[in-house]
Every structure is written in C-alpha cells, then in structure tokens.
Specification:
- The complex is a heterodimer of chains A (about 550) and B (about 180).
- Chain A is of the alpha+beta class and about 550 residues long.
- Chain A has helices at about 55-65, 65-80, 100-105, 105-115, 125-155, 160-165, 180-190, 215-230, 430-435, 440, 445-450, 475-495, 520-535, and strands spanning about 170-175, 195-200, 205-210, 240-245, 250-255, 260-270, 285-300, 310-320, 325, 330-335, 340-345, 350, 355-360, 365, 370-375, 375-385, 390, 395-400, 405-415, 420-425, 450, 460, 465-475, 500-505, 510-515.
- In chain A, helix 8 (about 215-230) runs antiparallel to helix 12.
- In chain B, helix 2 links the parallel strand 3 and strand 4.
- Chain B contains five helices and seven strands; from the N terminus they run H-E-E-E-H-E-H-E-H-E-E-H.
- The longest helix of chain B has 28 residues, at about 5-30.
- In chain B, about 40% of the residues lie in helices and about 20% in strands.
- The chains are: A alpha+beta (about 550), B alpha/beta (about 180).
C-alpha cells in the first residue's frame, strides 16, 4: 500500500512516524484526536517499521517489540522460580545419584528430576530465554536510541500549532508589546531556571537534562555486558567451583588446574560452655577453624607420569570468609573432619615361644617399605590391602581405594622356618584383626609369631582433614563493570528528567507547550516560575492539559 | 544510515546473536561437562605403563581400541580381566589394542594384584584421578569401545560377559 509520508512543512518522514520529525505536526491517526500527544520517542518511527518487511525484518521487528521483551522477562521470572522449588543439582558437593529427588521428595521429586528442573539454570531452554532477552535488549535499544538521538539532535525551534496545543502542559494568552523583545526576556527567565534556550525570532525551545534520556540505554549496555560475562563462564578455564579435602601435611591437586594445595596445619577452636547458651552446653561448636595453606604450581611432570615438580606460589592462613587468593584462584575454608585416620604403626615382632621381641619397625599404611630386618628374622611385604575384604570366592581383595581396613601380607623368613619362608597376614587395626580372624588366616604360624603394637605411642594418626572450596571466576570483573554501568544508567533515568518548553508568538498570541518524561509537577512549576518573571501570575495546576498522572 | 547499510548491521547483529546464542545453548545440549560421548573422540592421555614406558592415546591412532577403567577394589572389574585377556589373544593379530587404565591406586596394590593374572594387554596408571575425570567415569568398570577412525562407538558401564565383549569388538572391526 502506498502511503504519503510527506508533511505539509515539506519534510519527508519514514513509515510509522507519529509526529512530523521537523515541525511536530501530528500525523496519521494521531492527527484525528484532540487528546494530549503520544510523545514516546518524540513520535519518530522505530528503525524496524517498514512498508514491506522481508524475513530478516520480521525477525528484527519481533525482537524490537517491547511487548515481546516484557513477555520474555515474565517467562524467565516464572522459569527461575521453578528452579527454586527443590535444591538444584549444582548445590550438592558431588551429585551422582539420579534417584535422589524421588527418594527425598517422592513423586513430585521424580517429575521434577525427569523434567530437568533439577538443573533449570543450565537447561537449554533457560539459556535460550536468556539469549532471547539479550537479543531483545540489543535490538530494542538500537531500534529506538538511534532515531531518538537524531530527533533530539536536530529539533526544529518553531513547532506546529497543533503540536504545542496538544502537549500535556499548555498555556496560551495574548501579549502586548514587541513579541521579539518579549521572547528575548522570556529566554533570560528560562535560562535562570537552568534551561538551555534556542531562539528563532518569536519562537523558542528551552530544554534541560537531555542526558537523562540516555539512562535506559546505558542501563541496557550494562545488562548486555553482564549477560555476556555470565555466558563467558563457559569458556574453559574461566569458571571453577570445586571442593577438595586435604589432610594435614598432605599436598593435593586442585582438580582441573595445575595448582596444588598443601595443608601445612589445621587448627580449630571450639566455644567453651561458658560462651554458649544453655541449650547448646556440652556440644562441640566450632568458633574458628583455620588452615595454614600453601599454594603450589606444577611446572613439570604434571600429568600422570613421573614425580610432579612443584613451585611454591603463595601461603595464606585460610579462615571462613578469608580465602587464599592467587591470580584469580580463591580457596575458601568450607568444612573439616577431625576424625583421625591411621597413618602408620610401629609394631614389634614377638616370638611367642621364646617371648623375645624384635623391633619396633615403622610400617606406613600408604607407603610401606618392601623389606624389614628384625633380628634373625626378615619380613618381606608381599602385598598390602587398603580396605581388606574377602570376595565371594574367598580371595582377599580391596573394598575401596580408601585406607579403611589396611592389611599387610608378609613373607617371614628366619630360624626355624622353611627356607622359602611362610606367609603372615597382619591387620594393624584391632577391630579388623578380629573381624577378619587374623589368627585363622595365619593358622599354625599364629601360635609362633605375632605382630603387635605395644602402646598408643606406637600408633601414628593423620591430622585433621580440611575441606576447601576452590573457586575461579574470571567473569567476575566484567559482571561488576556491567552492574556498575547499569547502575549509572538507572541513576540517570531515575533522578533526572528531560524537560522541554516550546513557545511561539503569532500576531500577539502566545502559545506555550511543555513536555517531560516524568515529574509533571516540577515541569508545571518551571513554566509557572518563568512566566511569573514575565509578570504573568498563574496557578501551576491550571497549566494541566489532562492526561497526566503526576 | 542508508537502507543497505542498515541491512548489513541487522544481519551482522543477528549472525552475532546466532553464534553466541548457539554456542551457549549448544553447550547445554551436546556436552554435559566436556566428557566424551558416543560419537565423540576420547580425550588424549599420557600415562605410565607397568614397564615404566610412557603411553599416549595418540600412539594407537588408526587402531580399534578398548579403553577399560578398572580397580582392584571393584569385583566386576577384576572378573572381566581374564576375559579381556582371552579377547586380546583372539583379536590382537588383527590390530586390536586393549588399554586398561587403573583407577589411581598405589604401586604396591597394582603390582601385587597383577601378579595373580597373566595379562599381556597394556595396563596404564592414572594419578589423582585425572584421566578418570577427563573421561567422566563415575561407575566402575567403564569401558570405551573406539573405532579405528578414533570415534567412540560405545561406552559400557558395568561388568561384561566375554560374549558381550566379543560382540562389541567384532562390531569395531566391521566399521
């Protein structure tokens, strides 16, 4: 359909223009009404408004619609609330049990898990919504900010009568004297109220705080940076949130990095009974726990071959909310476990017949020696089990990788024994010795020999285990930058408003119209104050042309 | 801005959104946490063999592979080891390699355990569970069947009967 978009002032407007870009005359449907004007975006057409849209234009105008943007935001809000019904998978230190939700929450939990709501914020459709909001932010802003910038940058001073008379703040009167001289004095009055005035003979345009119009767009730029930063977390190496348990004295790798952390010492202070309320007396409440930690970097043999070469980077005493921090890696105190684990025993070999004792010798659980000389006898380590058990065929095997039930199989050689020796099974833990019937396993040899730890001094335990939370978030500075820009934009838009006054005098008749994006009360006050300087006393309320909320 | 210039800007922005958005959405759809999937490539590793030599996955390029994760503490892993040995004898003439990666156990445990068996296929040693994590292994045993072109044909979790192993290796050679 052909549409004549040329205004009577001679300006050629684009399709969709509501108010002539030059003289401000209402166009199209807007011209038929007498109500106050729709001043949004100064009546200019959005960039995407076109006579014959192609497929790209259609996609473009879909995302350019504020209505669509509001729906996207509402949908995202609703989706976000779904993710808060049950804990998300990511909130568990190590989520691996697919039946957890069903077991804990019953059928709703099963449905929740089956729908994938247990990882709402990582799901394709949630990320999809965020991507669409991002697209909408870019396109909406671009489509409006450029035409608005152009419109505000080349405003015509002498506006069409109907443009002025249909503003929400209007005033008209007959003035005596020289209109040019009157306009000049009025210019001065407006300037004193902080307006920048452009005068064209007997017409003027006064304007202040135009910059506040850019607030929403600056806010959008900040939000886009924010969204991109969150997206950037998926770049390898940018984001890590992992947990690691380190026993005192141990050095362990931070998974997925080349860093190693050493727990030099772990200490915990508990509250005394006098510091606690009655109902908590007698319970162990940690007051402060601290890991003296050292961070290392692997420089060679960092894979699974050879001894890793470590270089010390930094050291820090980690307490809650005071992490070790190095080059973007942060290690937080998370938890601790004071239960000691067996580290080594110092037993003696007893000849039950003579009562003679040989030893003691140090037997490390994790790293035992292959051979021990004990007087006339020798112990050769055949094998060691970390977590002993007998399988269904009665063959000794390991139950796990953890040293929960260590067991040592020795070959004993010496006087009174066969030349190729006899085997002897030793369980350092008394509990295991009975559970697995050490004496039965060793049969006749159990009557001749025993390996025993004399006293508690003969037992070495590992220190407490400190659980640390390792975090890397390289996106964080960008998130802060985005948030700061967004805040600046919001502040501009919230605390300042763009006020404009148009005035023209034709044949001694003054017509004045004023517009602001908010705070109409202040706008009317500005106009009335400037008029008062011209000896026109009016009640600011009387300037109201209707259609305002404030 | 002229119409054609505007069109270029529109297309550029839409392509940018498509690329960034596609990357973000695709990441959630196709790779759970960067671990290998069926149809993908197994991650490269460099591990010590029992003879002390260093073995890389890339050393076995172009050959059908069975990559098995096992531990002495895992009964089904132990049970299938002699079965893998028989399958290795059957297929090695045709170029099959079996790489059995131990689950980061210590020297004494692994060395003594292997004395009980007579295994000819390659036993490799992981450390700090690095390879295990890279492969996303959560349950044991887990076995990866890799086609000669380096593509993962199947990821089998749990113990296997010899017939099941044989059937899968036959499939590898069919490709």
């Amino acid at each position: 359909m052909f549409q004549n978009t040329k205004c009577e002032c001679g300006h050629q407007n684009s399709v969709g223009t509501v108010l002539c870009e030059s003289c401000g005359k209402p166009l199209g449907e807007e011209a038929l009404s007498d109500l106050p004007l729709e001043m949004r975006y100064d009546g200019v057409a959005r960039r995407s408004q076109k006579a014959n849209p192609g497929p790209i234009d259609r996609i473009w105008s879909f995302f350019s619609s504020v209505k669509i943007a509001v729906w996207l935001i509402v949908l995202t809000l609703l989706a976000s609330t779904l993710g808060t019904i049950y804990p998300q998978e990511g909130s568990f230190v190590n989520f691996s049990d697919p039946t957890y939700y069903e077991k804990t929450y019953g059928l709703p939990g099963k449905i929740y898990y089956a729908l994938g709501l247990s990882h709402t914020y990582e799901s394709w459709w949630f990320i999809g919504l965020l991507v669409m909001i991002g697209t909408s932010l870019v396109i909406c802003s671009l489509d409006r900010v450029l035409p608005l910038y152009r419109a505000l940058n080349k405003q015509q001073i002498r506006k069409h009568d109907r443009f002025i008379s249909r503003q929400k703040v209007v005033y008209a009167t007959r003035i005596d004297g020289d209109p040019e001289e009157w306009t000049q004095r009025f210019e001065g009055a407006l300037q004193r109220r902080g307006f920048r005035v452009h005068r064209d003979g007997t017409a003027l345009l006064a304007e202040k705080n135009r910059f506040s119009r850019w607030g929403p767009y600056i806010n959008h730029i900040g939000l886009i940076i924010f969204l991109l930063a969150v997206l950037a977390r998926s770049i390898p190496g940018w984001y890590l949130d992992d947990y690691v348990g380190v026993t005192e004295g141990d050095t362990v790798r931070l998974q997925g990095t080349n860093y190693f952390i050493k727990n030099v010492a772990f200490t915990v202070d508990f509250y005394t009974d006098s510091e606690m309320p009655d109902r908590l007396k007698g319970t162990a409440r940690a007051k402060k726990y601290e890991t003296k930690a050292e961070l290392y970097q692997c420089t060679a043999n960092c894979g699974a071959v050879g001894e890793p070469q470590l270089t010390k980077l930094t050291a820090h005493d980690i307490i809650v909310n005071d992490p070790l921090s190095y080059n973007g890696v942060k290690v937080y105190q998370f938890d601790f476990n004071m239960t000691p684990k067996l580290k080594a025993v110092n037993p003696v070999l007893i000849d039950k017949v003579t009562g003679e004792k040989y030893g003691p010798f140090r037997l490390s659980i994790a790293d035992p020696e292959p051979f021990y000389e004990l007087g006339p006898y020798s112990l050769e380590l055949i094998t060691r089990f970390m977590d002993f058990k007998l399988d269904e065929n009665g063959v000794p095997t390991n139950n796990s990788r953890e040293p929960d039930a260590p067991a040592f199989l020795f070959l004993i050689k010496g006087p009174g024994l066969p030349a190729d020796g006899e085997t002897f099974m030793y369980f350092p833990k008394q509990k295991d010795k009975q559970r697995f019937s050490q004496d039965m396993i060793n049969r006749a040899l159990a009557d001749r020999f025993d390996i025993v730890v004399g006293s508690m001094e003969g037992v070495e335990f590992t220190g407490p285990e400190s659980f640390l939370n390792v975090r890397i978030d390289r996106a964080m500075p960008f998130i802060w930058i985005g948030a700061a820009i967004s805040m600046i934009g919001l502040t501009l838009g919230f605390y300042w408003n763009h006020r404009r006054i148009w005035m023209r005098i034709d044949d001694g008749v003054l017509s004045l119209g004023a517009h602001t994006n908010k705070n109409w009360y202040g706008m009317r006050g500005d106009v009335a104050a400037a008029l008062r300087k011209m000896s026109i006393e009016i009640d600011p309320k009387s300037l109201d042309n209707g259609g305002n909320k404030t | 801005m002229t119409g054609s210039k505007r069109k270029i800007v529109q297309i550029a922005i839409l392509i940018g959104v498509l690329l960034l958005g596609g990357y973000a959405i695709g990441k959630t759809l196709f790779s759970s946490d960067g671990t290998p999937q069926v149809g993908g490539k197994p991650p490269e590793f460099e591990l010590a063999a029992m003879d002390g030599s260093v073995q890389k996955l890339s050393d076995y390029k172009g050959r059908p592979l069975v990559i098995n994760f096992w531990g002495t503490f895992c009964p089904p892993c132990v049970k299938e080891m002699p079965e893998f040995q028989r399958q290795y004898v059957k297929w090695k003439g045709e170029g099959l390699e079996i790489l059995a990666i131990n689950l980061s156990e210590d020297d004494i445990t692994v060395t003594n355990f292997l004395k009980r068996f007579n295994l000819d296929y390659q036993i490799l040693r992981d450390r700090d569970r690095q390879t295990e994590k890279a492969y996303g292994v959560r349950q044991y045993p887990t076995t990866f069947f890799v086609k000669p072109n380096g593509e993962i044909k199947e990821i089998f979790i749990g113990g296997m009967t010899e017939a099941a192993i044989d059937e899968r290796i036959t499939e590898l050679f069919r490709n």
